[in-house]
Structure formats: structure tokens, C-alpha cells
UniProtKB/TrEMBL annotation:
It comes from Nitrospira moscoviensis. Gene3D superfamilies: Tetratricopeptide repeat domain. SUPFAM superfamilies: HCP-like. It comes from the Bacteria. InterPro entries: Sel1-like, Sel1_AlgK, TPR-like_helical_dom_sf. SMART domains: SEL1. This is Beta-lactamase. PANTHER family: ERAD-ASSOCIATED E3 UBIQUITIN-PROTEIN LIGASE COMPONENT HRD3 (PTHR11102:SF160), SEL-1-LIKE PROTEIN (PTHR11102).
Amino acid sequence: MRAALRLLTLGITFSVLPGCIEPRLRPYVNVHDMSPPIDELRALAEQGNAEDQYQLGRRYELAVPQDYREAVRWYRSAAMQRHAGAFYRLCALSDIGRGVPQDYEEALRWCRLAADQGHGRAMFTIGFHYQYAHGVPRDLIQAHQWYNLAGANGYHAATKWRDRLAADMTRTQIAQAQFLARNWKPNSREPAAGPP
């Protein structure tokens, strides 16, 4: 019985093995072959769809060589249509000064627009800015609140940051931060587009 099982296992192994060894028989698809060329994406983005504009911005940002100015251009187009991902990418690029001048206050403005749509990573970034006083005064209560919101909105790494931060806070401060997080409401009054 064991000999028959070994023989069956060897047979299965050798029938699958050629696809793994011979390049022309590989059973997987190269992921780079699946993404449309930039020209094709640009044609779609020029039709005005926010998701296509955002995806084109990502392609320019991740291209070799990277073209941050062109990425910012397309993110702004998508942001005009209130695309949360575009808001966040504009925040990230403003934060580090890629394609636009570095400006923490501008980064925070874009992050808040993304946060208003429940973008967890944008919420985390706001918390980080409060914890390390980037563009705002240092405020551990605000940092804790935003880390808490980020974790609740799917950015799970933020809960570790919140917990580490809590070690440097009093119980009263933590209670205030939790109260703010529970009662936070998105601000929908700010305009979508920033300066050109």
C-alpha cells in the first residue's frame, strides 16, 4: 500500500514539475504583463473617470524613472472628483516634497480630505503629524485619536502606534482621546481641489 502511495505521489510530482522547470510551460502569469501601458491608461484617464486618473497617477509615481509631477497632475484631476486615494497620495507627496514643494500643512489638508472619506492610512498620517509636530503643534491626545480612528478604518498598524503612545499619556488624556475618536464626524464643507 505504501509503495503504491509513493508511486502515485511521484507520478503527480513529475506531471506537475515540467511546468515549473520549463519557462515556456510556467503555470503563472507575469503581473507586469497584466497592467495596461501608460498610453492606454492616459486615454482612459482623459475621459474623466476619477479611478482611471488615480491609476494613471500611480503608474507615473511607480514608473522607472518616476514622474512625480505628472503623478500629481493626475491625482489632482481625480481629487477634483473627491477620490479618497488621490487625496491621500497628494498628502503623501506633499509630505515628502515629491512633485510639489514639501509642505506639512498642505499634506495635512489633503489627508483630512481623505480621512473625511474614511481613509485609514490618511488618518494614521494625521496622527503621526500630531505626534511628531509636523505642521501642527505636538498633541498626544489628537495623535491617539487619529491612530484610533485609523485602526477602526482598516489601517491596523495604527493600533500598535496608539498603544505605544498611550504609555506616555495619562488616563485622563487617553479618555479624552477616546471621547474625541468616538464623536469624530467627517468635515464635508472643505472644497476638493487645492491650488493648481
